[in-house]
Amino acid sequence: MPLFSKPSHEDKRTGYLEKPVDAEPMPLDRTGSLEEPVLPWVIELRVVGTANIVNITTRPTMLIGRSDESRGIFPDIDVSELGGQGAGVSRRHALMLARDNRVTIQDLGSANGTFINGRVLEPKTEYRVHDRDRLRLGRLELQIHFVIKPLVDERTHVGMQNLLKIPVIGDRQNILIFDESEEVCRVLRFVAEKAGFQPTIAMSDTDFMRAIDENPPDMVIMEMTVGDSKGVDLIRYLRNHFRLSTRQLVEAAEAVHSIPETASEDREPQGLLKHIVNEGRQNGNGTVKELVSITNHSRVKPNIPIAITSNVTGGYQMGQAIKAGADIILSKPIAVDELIETLHEMVDKLQTA
Questions:
Q1: Is residue 325 within 8 Å of residue 318, measured between CB atoms?
Q2: Position 166 in a domain
Q3: Domain span at residue 262?
Q4: Which among 201, 205, 204, 206 is positioned nearest to 190, based on CA atoms?
């Protein structure tokens, strides 16, 4: 039985508005597994002029169109609820294909055409799309957003399919992943596990703080939404939560006896150390001993690396994030090879902390 049945007469094209743009050549061999559980892609389609976002579970081949239960048509990307019928979207309108480090669109002979950045596509021909390109199906206009992609390198890698070699980097360190997107968490979890880490997933502020309290992480990758200050607040919460360590307390305990009562101003302890030393002077070091007894390295990791993911890498908000304690900024779309390098860097930071 063919994958797609023959379109009815109502789905035939009505003619081109202009010449199609030249398409990049695509390999004819399609040997990639359709059963691959996790692909190195996260793609969102945003309906232009609205707040609607179509979240996609990325597969190597995805049908775009409108569902029709009576005909057994169930598209991977269903625009029925977005006014697809009124906008002239066919039931089997187009294909989106993700492989070889690129995403392409192929019109399936739709009634009202498929357009990329205003240019009509020749039917049955694959055209490459890039992050933030405009895709129009009939009169329904969508903007393509790549959230995660395989490689920083934009070139086509023929024969790569969706296979990436992920090296073992970690030694079962606990990595906390915070993102509100289920698909982003799914891919990041997959990469982290393959790289030798134990990922904990949080998709809300409450989950994030609970994870920190119940199972303190060795490192954190967290999303920061542009214009939302909660990301900076969560970084501060994380840093304040881990402000103490056994090493710092032992040094403070020793400092109680090493700093004379009449120390000059330039030798006076500062910040947290000043508070602990003053307490120690008043009660014979009891405060320090008590803090040391309830603090250990399995619970307290003050120098944990924090990486944030964001649509922007500069500006006031990113400056505040760095000031609050973020170590690394990963710009979206996140490239998996760049993520792997970030994991290497975070492990290095742990070892030198």
A1: no
A2: no
A3: 246-293
A4: 201
Task: Give the pLDDT confidence score for residue 292 in this predicted structure.
Answer: 47
Indicate whether 165 belongs to any domain.
no
d(CA 215, CA 126) in angstroms, rounded, equals: 47
Mapped onto helix, strand or coil, the DSSP state of residue 319 is helix
Structure-block tokens of residue 254: 């020793």
Amino acid sitting at position 248: Q
- Asked if 55 and 44 touch (Cβ cutoff 8 Å), the reply is yes
Q: What is the pLDDT of residues 23-38, one digit of tens each?
A: 333 332 333 333 445 8
| CATH at 197 | 3.40.50.2300
Maximal CA-CA distance, the chain:
95
| Helical spans, DSSP H, in the chain | 182-194, 205-214, 230-241, 246-258, 271-283, 286-293, 316-324, 336-352
Residues 178 and 230 occupy one common structural domain = yes
Distance CA 46, CA 141 (A): 9
Cα angle 59, 61, 63 (rounded to 5 degrees) comes to: 105
pTM here is 0.73
Residues 75 and 183 reside in one and the same domain: no
What is the residue whose two structure tokens read 């059963």?
35
**Residue for token pair 């021909």:** 125
